[in-house]
Amino acid sequence: MELTREQLDRNDEIDQAVYACICTLAEKELPWNMEVIGLATEHIRALLERHGIKMRWPGIVTHEDGSETYEDGT
């Protein structure tokens, strides 16, 4: 199972936006760190969901039995 080009582009857009936000809040250019970006994105999504706002964040989830499903948060 693979993400489409559109889904990959959406994830890139999210990563870039979150990175820019982190740098703005830190008031300096920070190293690109996907661990930090991913955690920040997860917190942002959780906050939006608590306020009833859906965020399309495409991904493939691998389950304990090895099966995979596509999820995008909508």
Describe this structure in words.
The longest helix is centred in the N-terminal third of the chain and has 22 residues, at 5-26. The chain has 74 residues and is mostly helical. A hairpin with a 5-residue loop joins strand 1 (59-62) and strand 2. The chain has helices spanning 5-26, 34-50, and strands at 59-62, 68-71. The protein is 53% helix and 11% strand. It is built from two helices and two strands; from the N terminus they run ααββ. The mean pLDDT is 94. Strands 1-2 form a two-stranded antiparallel sheet. It has one domain (5-71). 3% of the residues are buried.
The tally of beta strands, per DSSP, is 2
Largest sheet report? 2 strands, antiparallel
Note the run of SSEs as H and E. HHEE
Oligomer: single chain
Structural class: mainly alpha
**What's the gyration radius in Å?**
14 Å
Query: What percent of the residues sit in helical stretches (DSSP H or I)?
Result: 40-55%
- Roughly what fraction of the amino acids lie in strands? 5-15%
Average pLDDT for all residues: 94
So what's the overall shape?
Answer: globular
Helical segment count: 2
Q: What strand order characterises the main sheet?
A: 1-2
Number of domains: 1
- End-to-end Cα distance: 19 Å
**Runs with pLDDT <50, length 5+?**
none
